[in-house]
Amino acid sequence: MNNYLYRISTLLVTILAVIILQGKIVQAQSLSPKEINSIAKSITVLIENPGDIGSGVIVNHHGDTYTVLTAEHVLEDVSIKSNLITNDNKQYPLNRYRICKFDDKIDLAIVKFTSSKEYPIAKIGDSSKVAIGSKVYVAGFPVSSGITRSSYQFVDGKITGTETDHTYKEGYGLVYDNKTLPGMSGGPVFNEAGELIGIHGKGDINTKLLKTKDPNLVIKTGFNLAVPINIYSKALPDIQDCSEIIHNPQVFYKLDEYLDAKNFWDADLETKKLLFEYFHINVSGYLTEESIKKLPCELLSTIDKKWSYASAGQFGFSIQKSLMPKKAQDKEEDKERKNRYDEFASLVGWTFRGEYVEPNKDKYNLNAPKGHLPRQFLDGPIWTIFIDKINECNL
After folding, report:
1. Cα–Cα distance between 104 and 121 in angstroms, integer?
2. Smallest Cα–Cα separation from 342: which of 315, 324, 359?
3. CA separation for the pair 75, 64 (Å, rounded)
4. In the chain, what are the domain boundaries?
5. Mean pLDDT throughout 258-283?
6. Which CATH superfamily is 33-114 part of?
7. 355: Cα separation from own chain's centroid
């Protein structure tokens, strides 16, 4: 009996040991640099801004919408000319309205793009388990005077320091000696299992620089810094709904500047630019009925409040809404819509005795009729559609 129990016990211990061992193998399984590079190349993206570039990594997707994680400073100069380029060389326009920043003190941001193509996403690791001396890999798209066009690069190195209490500014907490180049900021940092453990963002500018055989190409040889991926993981619940919502105050800095100076002409043009850039189209012509219906209420509300405050309630979408004659019925004929617009245009000073009055810079002041501004993003009866949208948004 005792011999039987002994054998059973030995068998259970052996099974348990195998389970634990297998668990360790799965948890600590390392990939070859070639395998990690293959992963990195498929999910690392190039971010092109006018006169500057950066990198990012695809971390999530929902349907046709993909989420790219990068360093916040990479997205500072996003404009209508900015693009995101995936590993298959497909270009996707970067929309600054789809940029979500983290805490002001953290150098992280996400931006979203839409594609019917299927792209892989990063496997998120645990940056708290990163040990000094462990191998790490950084991927990105560097640029320098020695490289004529940006091309994907993958560099290895080792962790030289970690700071779990964020001793470094802007959330940086991983330190490594990989030889990176400008343009790789925002790129992914991987552990030996091919898991994303950080977002590369800074190089030690106080260190000496190693010059290659090409005197124009300079490589940083000092310490590099990344924001640990756990910061992203912890913040994820707060940024889940950041798809088409205004989270970037820099979007409105020019509008604020013009309105503060009572420069209503340029504020009007900037308002048109803001509305057009939401759809990533050039500022020419007017918005269409289809585009009006897709404008987010938060964008319209933000612009309206700025105009209303700067003009002491004289201008803004909500003021224009109050002056637009009400619909006689839910469905309008073109003639009824035109009649409503004609009455509205006369009230706000866009027509005089039935004749159209061209925008006049000299009359862009507080003496203009109530509701006169903003105006240059639309023309004609389609204004009734726009005011319907303003009503829908409860402005």
Report:
1. 26
2. 324
3. 22
4. 33-114, 127-229, 251-392
5. 87
6. Trypsin-like serine proteases (2.40.10.10)
7. 44
Tens of pLDDT, residue by residue over 1-38, are 445 444 444 444 444 343 333 433 334 489 999 999 99
Please, are residues 200 and 220 in contact by the beta-carbon 8 Å criterion?
no
Alpha carbon distance 319, 369 (integer Å): 11
Two tokens at 252? 């409105």
pLDDT confidence of residue 127: 94
Calculate ∠ Cα 355-361-366, nearest 5°: 90
Q: Which CATH superfamily is domain 127-229 in?
A: Trypsin-like serine proteases (2.40.10.10)
SS3 394: coil
Q: Token pair 């570039």 is at which residue?
A: 53
In terms of Cα–Cα distance, which of 102, 111, 104, 108 is closest to 48? 111
Q: Which two tokens stand for residue 257?
A: 């500047």
Q: Identify whether the C-beta of residue 111 lies closer than 8 Å to the C-beta of residue 181.
A: no
Count Cβ atoms below 10 Å from residue 118 Cβ, excluding itself. 8
pTM of full prediction above 0.70: no
